[in-house]
TrEMBL record, chains A, B:
Source lineage: Bacteria, Pseudomonadati, Pseudomonadota, Alphaproteobacteria, Hyphomicrobiales
Protein known as: LLM class flavin-dependent oxidoreductase
Organism of this sequence: Bradyrhizobium denitrificans
Protein family (similarity comment): Belongs to the NtaA/SnaA/DszA monooxygenase family.
SUPFAM superfamilies the UniProt entry points to: Bacterial luciferase-like
InterPro entries tied to this protein: Diverse_substr_monoxygenases (IPR051260), Luciferase-like_dom (IPR011251), Luciferase-like_sf (IPR036661), NTA_MOA (IPR016215)
Length: 447, 447
């Protein structure tokens, strides 16, 4: 009997949780936000519940609204390396920017993480949308969206070739003969492109997964095309089933058109669940969080999403929809349309919009008892909207504990989620093949 | 009664050990060279013997002679992050290049390592001498020595300001008031220099040590001046007491001239000990290693040190001293003079020179019983040649076990090395003060 199709579940970790006021909630671990043991413990809980992976976002600039929330950012690859040492099976996905890294350095960081974790590394590929990052890297201005994606494509070609530059059997490691590496199987790239000139080979032998898992989160036209071509898992934000279905169908179609197996492109929307034993209790919990919102913080978030500064406006007045069209402003591409759709659908006041977005920066927020959460997950999963989810607990660790203890057992009972790991690597958890090296059928000597 | 001045001891880790044929020796852990648990175990042994730190070298290019030895390079910061999670007191020093990193990225990596290790990070600052690195980073050629040091100086100014950009009390983290950061104490740099334009602030709060420990290894004129100005610990290679004394006196003098406390510049020569219960046994052990040397490998090493290709020459003929002068070739600046001095002093054949350098790439190799090793350490320590040592076992783990089990107890009995840790951070192990933030007396708002 063939096994039922299985959900993939990741735990997306923000210091205090994903609601923008999470760190102020009495149950959050605000005081431990700088402490690696807190993150190691979260990862161990997720591993205990057989999650596919944990996930860290990233950006190389300080958020403007750090005054009002825990918006610092540890460097994810160091953090994941320390978490790797405290876990044994769970995948480790870190975000890093193709705009603000050199491919040789990035390839080494992730190859090393893949080695030290025994094949559990994933790279969430971003081009960085925060314009202030440019000023930390000597650029006169942040490169535009199209240019960033163009660089990203070449970047991917280069790091892929670097990860493949040692064939799997290049390491001989034979003390008797004195041969460590069969250098006929260690290949220079000699890449010469518009953005990069990289000779190679990498100075790290091929890693357990061959290549770390390629994760991506773009939602713009360029972002979708990039994801369909390169991504093996896609994180995406949707407020409605219909929106998620449209995205799902589009990506799978584009992947098919590129001769890729669409099952090897996992689509994982974000979900931020407020869980109570009754609907009323879950709603009250969500209200408790919304009461902790600081509008000074939220307006900066909104400015980043829309490119529109609403400070000074009456929070309880209507959202000034006309300003979006007249300004033609654009913020983060993956969020702009989503927020405008909410405005058009729900006609909120500014305060209502802020609350709507406070839960998880535009991701799907749902409140209810565990059965309802599980039902919704199953509906999206079985109706062409998701292959799994990026779970974004409103607060941590308690908000995740509720999901793990009450929702996961329901999903397991329904046969939708594993009872135990069958594989050891992140590729195995996701059902992805281990890629052969690009060079595996060439004969070419190292210079 | 004041305590006697104490040695600082680091364990310098190369996969199979420091002798170039170490990985071929029957006692080396050649088969575990790609396994993080092997390195975690080495670090735990060093911690058990209260060593100050472990140390990893690095370079962003594949060595030309990887065919004949384990000359791959894991990325040290990921590696150290995973080791941090398996240890609690030992310092963690990783090498990274100022020529091939962006300061914002590097500052985050080390600040994160310092956070996750509870204040145990050290950065060995190098400018990278291997010319092939340039070709992995799109540079038409490797920048010359002077230019690399010029960039390094500005790089240091930038990362220092980034590490200081959050004052120590900038993190308020008060859920009740909703203030996470006192942004009057989070400072942009607005650095504009010849090589870098960096706005800042860093997106990581100030780390436990304030700044990771600054380690350096330059021996050229530029390198010494740089070390005297910035370094808190210096790794250095000397074949003789006289050479080490000259270096020690020069650095301390230069530090004093810059108004630095010379005690806060620890000078740590490399030492590679072959230990036997008798002199004859130690000598036989060293011969056993020399019998495993592969000249194909050694000649590449020599070419890198001297810029001179001797393949094709009779290994048992005299070293062609005249070629150095006529070619005027230069390899790695910190080794060139050292090797030429050996040639002039000992008039070796090529094979003899290769054996002389095979032990630890030009570092001090000494063979003998434990008492003799301890005597020599004490002589250097008490005669103005060293504040401690970078211990470079010929092979691992056995070569280190011998040192730890037989030499450390003698040093302790003589009151020269700690019986237990008195501090928790690497700065505390080295007796270095925790630096105040550059910004700690300014009042300046985040823009």
């Amino acid at each position: 009997m063939s096994q039922r199709r299985q959900l993939n579940l990741n735990l997306f970790i923000y210091p205090g949780g994903h609601h923008e006021a999470a760190w102020r909630y009495k149950g959050s671990a605000a005081s431990r936000a700088l402490d690696i043991s807190y993150y190691q413990q979260l990862a161990r809980t997720a591993e205990h519940y057989t999650f596919d992976a944990i996930f860290f976002a990233d950006g190389p600039a300080l958020a403007d609204n750090v005054r009002y929330a825990q918006r610092f950012r540890f460097e994810p690859i160091t953090w994941l390396s320390a978490i790797a040492a405290a876990t044994s099976r769970i995948g480790l996905i870190g975000t890093a920017s193709t705009t603000y890294h050199e491919p040789y350095n990035l390839a080494r960081l992730y190859a090393s993480l893949d080695h030290l974790s025994g094949g559990r590394a994933g790279w969430n590929i971003v081009t960085t949308s925060a314009p202030q990052a440019a000023q930390n890297f000597g650029l006169p201005e942040h490169p535009d969206h199209h240019e960033r994606y163009e660089r990203a494509k070449e970047f991917l070609d280069v790091v892929t070739a670097l990860w493949d530059s040692w064939e799997d059997d290049a390491v001989v490691n034979d003390p008797a003969s004195g041969i460590f590496a069969d250098t006929d199987k260690v290949h220079p790239l000699n890449h010469v492109g518009k953005h990069f000139r990289v000779r190679g080979p990498l100075n790290v032998p091929r890693s357990p997964q061959g290549r770390p898992v390629y994760v991506q989160a773009g939602s713009s036209e360029d972002g979708r095309a990039f994801a369909a071509r390169f991504a093996e898992a896609i994180f995406t934000a949707h407020q409605t089933l219909a929106s998620a279905q449209e995205f799902y169908a589009d990506i799978k179609r584009q992947a098919r058109a590129l001769d890729r197996n669409p099952d090897h492109v996992k689509i994982l929307p974000g979900i931020s669940p407020f869980i109570g034993s009754t609907q009323a209790e879950a709603d009250r919990l969500q209200e408790e969080f919304n009461d902790l919102i600081q509008p000074e913080y939220s307006l900066v978030q909104l400015r980043q999403m829309l490119g529109l500064d609403l400070s000074g406006f009456d929070l309880d007045g209507p959202f000034p929809r006309h300003l979006i069209e007249t300004d033609g402003a654009r913020g983060v591409a993956s969020r702009f349309k989503l927020v405008v759709d909410i405005v058009d659908r729900e006609k909120p006041t500014i305060r209502q919009l802020i609350q709507r977005l406070a839960g998880a920066r535009g991701h799907w927020v749902i409140a209810g008892p565990p059965e309802k959460i599980a039902d919704n997950i199953q509906t999206w999963f079985e109706n062409g909207a998701a292959d799994g989810f990026n779970v974004m607990p409103p607060w941590l660790p308690g908000g995740f504990d509720l999901f793990a203890e009450h929702v996961v057992p329901i999903l397991r009972k329904r046969g939708l989620f594993r009872e135990e790991y069958s594989g050891k690597t992140l590729r195995e958890h996701y059902g992805l093949e281990r890629p052969a090296s690009l060079y595996s059928h060439q004969v070419q000597a190292i210079a």
